[in-house]
Design the sequence.
């Protein structure tokens, strides 16, 4: 398996981990996955920073599935992930993008954006 495929699987695993309830409600796990400079433009229109995500209850429980996942390497230790998500509760789709940076040997999400789609 080539390195870009391995990298794609690693980042997909991390994105999926961020959709799991036990991760989303754990400040400790979110601290491990979100960079200090984390910024999100949510599909709801809200803007979030890392500290907003680390309080009681974390970022909330969701039921979402990732599809059409791709990555683009922007620099040796910076990855852009693009994908779509189906939200099973809202019965809606969003287009997502994330920037992951490798810090001290660990991948951390630095930026995330969700955009609602019509289908």
Sequence:
């Amino acid at each position: 398996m080539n390195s870009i495929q391995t990298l794609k699987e690693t980042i997909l695993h991390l994105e999926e981990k961020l959709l799991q309830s036990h991760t989303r409600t754990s400040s400790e796990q979110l601290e491990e996955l979100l960079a200090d400079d984390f910024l999100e433009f949510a599909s709801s229109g809200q803007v979030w920073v890392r500290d907003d995500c680390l309080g009681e209850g974390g970022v909330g429980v969701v039921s979402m599935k990732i599809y059409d996942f791709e990555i683009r390497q922007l620099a040796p230790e910076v990855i852009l992930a693009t994908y779509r998500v189906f939200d099973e509760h809202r019965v809606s789709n969003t287009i997502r993008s994330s920037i992951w940076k490798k810090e001290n040997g660990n991948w951390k999400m630095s930026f995330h954006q969700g955009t609602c789609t019509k289908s």
